[in-house]
Amino acid sequence: MVKTFQFQDIQVPSPGFGCMGLSHGLGSNLSLEQAEPVLLKAIELGCTFWDTAVVYQAGVNEKLLGDFIRKHNVRDKVFIASKCGVACFDGESGVTNSPAHIKKYIDGTIERLGFTPDLYYLHRIDPKTPLEESIPALDECRKAGKTKYIGLSECSAKTLRKANSIAKIHAIQAEYSAFETLHETDDLIATAAELSISYIAYSPLGHGWLVDNFDYASPDDFAPDDFRRTVPKFQGENFYRNKAIVEEIKKLAKKKGCSTSQIALAWVSGQGMMPIPGTTKVGRLEENWGSRDVELTEEEMAEMRRIVDQAKPEGERYGEAHRAWVGH
Ligand SMILES: NC(=O)c1ccc[n+]([C@@H]2O[C@H](COP(=O)([O-])OP(=O)(O)OC[C@H]3O[C@@H](n4cnc5c(N)ncnc54)[C@H](OP(=O)(O)O)[C@@H]3O)[C@@H](O)[C@H]2O)c1
Question: The domain that contains 16 carries what CATH number?
Fold first, then answer.
């Protein structure tokens, strides 16, 4: 049973909560009143390792969390991670890690949240800015007390190693689920483990795939602004073919007496990672939080491994534009 996650020198409750979908990417953009029930439930449960980013609706997601935390006076209860590295204001867009960007964006984050974040990542790596410039700039923010920890998101193993030789990197945030295991083979997970960098697994439900009640019968059901419309894995024939993976995991969950999302999250935790599933719904938050009570035996882990290895999803995990941003 995994109830806490060792994040560097502190213990944090696991699983965490991915806040992106409250405002961005998956077809919702909730007001404070609409988001309040799920955020209040997270506080009540103790699900308090929250993840946001500047680019999630250009500051809207950070502001939503800041407003909620102010209103309910719960700053001392939450660990907040945010990210810069993708321009989204003043008509600018695209990946940038320039020191000027990092310094400007973290100040904006602090203003919207109303306090300094606990962890600040570079969301994507900009190959045009040398790590010798970007990493010291990020670490200077830490030294100035603007964040406690620093991290990188979706970088290559080589970048992670080099960055960590310039300044201590505390966290890597990258995709990992039973539906997407690419970082098992590109050395990222192994490098993070070797360098004692905490691995925060985003999209641990495969962007909503590894669940009992998938809301979509066809790719046409995604909202017009849902990013899954741009993802080959979720489009055309792949949408239907990749369902087989869920069916296999569903059978195991049924045998275990838990839900599919719970077994999927227990699997991620079992790899020594912190899963940060997202949901806009109170009941699903409770369900996902219940993964804490799911302990997979060695036999069940082996069965999950067999399913995961035999049923790799078909199709790229990002559309062309986003693909160009990862792996640097
Ligand atoms: N660093 C990065 O580049 C990066 C990229 C993507 C995401 N992230 C972070 O990771 C977090 C999670 O990723 P994600 O939202 O892409 O994927 P996810 O957590 O794997 O899946 C979220 C989706 O699953 C649905 N869902 C959640 N629990 C469910 C349940 N028990 N039953 C049925 N459906 C359920 C949600 O819909 P409802 O809202 O309708 O419940 C939502 O559509 C994000 O919030 C963000 O903080 C980071």
Answer: 3.20.20.100
- How many CA within 13 A on the CB side of residue 34? 10
Q: Which domain holds residue 76?
A: 4-215+259-296
Sorted by sequence, the CB contacts under 8 Å of residue 237 that are 6+ apart come out as 314
123-165 confidence digits (pLDDT tens): 999 999 999 999 999 999 999 999 999 999 999 999 999 999 9
Total domains in the chain come to 1
| Inside any domain, residue 234 | no
In a domain, 231, yes or no: no
Q: If you average pLDDT over residues 67-83, what whole number do you get?
A: 98
Give mean pLDDT, residues 236-242. 94
- Pocket residues: Cβ below 6 A from ligand 1: 18-21, 26, 51, 153-154, 173, 202-208, 211, 213, 261, 276-281, 284, 287-288
Q: How far is the CA of 175 from the centre of ligand 1 (A)?
A: 11
Ligand 1 center to 318 CA (angstroms): 15
Question: What's the pLDDT score for residue 314?
Answer: 93
CA of 280 to the centre of ligand 1 (A): 9
Q: How many CB atoms lie within 10 A of CB 218?
A: 8
Q: Ligand 1, closest atom to CA 121? A: 1
For residue 241 the two structure tokens come to 């073919």
- Residue 2 pLDDT greater than 70, yes or no: no
In a domain, 225, yes or no: no
| Rounded Cα gap, residues 22 and 279, in angstroms | 7
